[in-house]
Specification:
The chain is α+β, with helices and mostly antiparallel strands. It has one domain (about 5-170). About 25% of the residues lie in helices and about 15% in strands. α2 packs across α3 (about 140-155).
């Protein structure tokens, strides 16, 4: 079983993989990132990347998990509209970045819709590398993070096929 606290600590330790921060949704003026109105320290703007990593580590759809997004018309951060990603399985909500908000998200989780971002497959040149039955494959950031995870904690069975396909797709 994946320990969520360990995953969060790992993501925080490896946040450089994400770059400075993600993006606020809803056509937000991105100058607010530097306005001083928002705390842009980790995990700000990285909820998708963190959730994408954890979603696949938990086994994704084949284990009954859904990757969901709350639309920017339903949520704000310091009065700025934003999107937010989380994972759901039945009634269970898994949100490793919820603490970036200074309020509870409990009432808005029900407004989340299943979604994902990224590629539909791994490729090496024009060769398609088939893997799994998901519509999307893990993002490049997720795979780079998983490569670091393997070195620190070992293999996670549900990631093995994706990891092997990703390694095959890289020009090694």
């Amino acid at each position: 079983m994946i320990n969520i606290e360990t995953v969060y600590e790992f993501l925080e330790e490896n946040q450089k993989v994400f770059g400075k921060f993600g993006t606020l949704g809803g056509g937000v003026d991105h100058s607010v990132h530097n306005s001083g109105d928002l705390d842009t320290s980790f995990p700000f703007g990285r909820c998708f990347q963190c959730c994408n990593f954890l979603y696949y580590m938990l086994g994704a759809k084949k284990r009954g998990y859904q990757l969901k997004i709350i639309n920017s018309k339903h949520i704000t951060m310091s009065s700025y509209p934003t999107t937010h990603w989380f994972i759901q399985k039945g009634d269970e909500i898994i949100d490793v970045t919820s603490h970036q908000f200074d309020f509870s998200l409990e009432d808005v989780y029900k407004l989340g819709v299943e979604s994902n971002l990224g590629r539909t497959r791994f490729m090496k040149g024009k060769e398609i590398i088939e893997v799994g039955d998901e519509l999307f494959v893990p993002t490049q950031n997720t795979m780079v993070l998983y490569d670091k995870w393997v070195k620190k904690y070992g293999v996670v069975e549900d990631m093995t096929d994706y990891y092997n396909a990703w390694k095959k797709s890289k020009c090694l």
